[in-house]
Amino acid sequence: MATESGNPTGDGETRRDFLGIVAWSGMAVGGIAVLWPFVHSMNPSADVLALASTAVDVDDIDEGMGITVMWRGKPVFIRHRTAEEIAAAEQADIGGLRDPQPDSDRVIQPQWLIVVGVCPHLGCVPGGTRPGEARGDYGGWFCPCHGSHFDTSGRIRRGPAPTNLEVPEYVFETDTRVVIG
């Protein structure tokens, strides 16, 4: 007795469908197995992930002093500002600045200023973090390469730099520990 398809057992198409599903599934799994190492190679390496954020203990930074730490291959200036530096930064007339930003937009806690230490003009590293370095006419940082002067909020006040020193993303985990990035 024959079925409608002409197959006497009636299970030829079912067996063919099953073999097709197995073959296509095997090819899909094989394709994923071949592509996985390539896709995984595009993930950032462990050393890059380690640079994604930097934790810094700021408890040892005396008022009026600053340190430089490295983050993502760039220097970052962390300054413990004095009351006078905070007042100067807050009272500055920002209307006449090339890149006007109020001090309150640049800091989380007024006593701590954290900026990327790369001059936006040509990528030099301004001085003013270490004792004895020139801080420029506004008490912040001075880039001797081309004469850019930054104030105590990291804003460009004089010279060729087109913008302020960049403020990186950061959070205070505690009162004395900051995580940059």
List its traits.
23% strand; three-stranded antiparallel sheet; 9 strands; 181 residues; Rieske Iron-sulfur Protein; alpha+beta
Give an account of the 3D structure.
With 181 residues, the chain is an alpha+beta fold. The protein has 2 domains: 1-43; 49-180, Rieske Iron-sulfur Protein (3-layer Sandwich). The chain has 3 helices and 9 strands, in the order ααβββαββββββ. It has helices at 12-40, 46-50, 83-91, and strands at residues 54-57, 66-71, 74-80, 112-116, 139-143, 148-151, 156-158, 170-172, 177-180. The strands form 3 sheets. A 3-stranded antiparallel beta sheet has the order 1-9-8, with no helix packed on it. Strands 2-3-4 form a 3-stranded antiparallel beta sheet, with no helix packed on it. The longest helix has 29 residues, at 12-40. The radius of gyration is 30 Å and the shape is elongated. The relative contact order is 0.14. The mean pLDDT is 85.
Task: Describe the secondary structure blueprint for this structure.
Layout: H1 12-40, H2 46-50, E1 54-57, E2 66-71, E3 74-80, H3 83-91, E4 112-116, E5 139-143, E6 148-151, E7 156-158, E8 170-172, E9 177-180
Antiparallel strand pairs: 1-9, 2-3, 3-4, 5-6, 6-7, 8-9
Sheet bearing the most strands, described? 3 strands, antiparallel
Rg, please? 30 Å
Widest sheet: strand order? 1-9-8
Please count the helical segments. Answer: 3
> Mean pLDDT across all residues, rounded?
85
**CATH fold-level name of the largest domain:** Rieske Iron-sulfur Protein
Unreliable runs, pLDDT <50, ≥5 residues? none
Number of strands: 9
> What's the CATH first level of the largest domain?
Mainly Beta
Instruction: Tell me the CATH superfamily of the largest domain.
Output: Rieske [2Fe-2S] iron-sulphur domain
Helix content bin: 10-25%
Proportion of strand residues: 15-25%
Strand pairing plus helix content: what structural class? alpha+beta
Order of helices and strands: HHEEEHEEEEEE
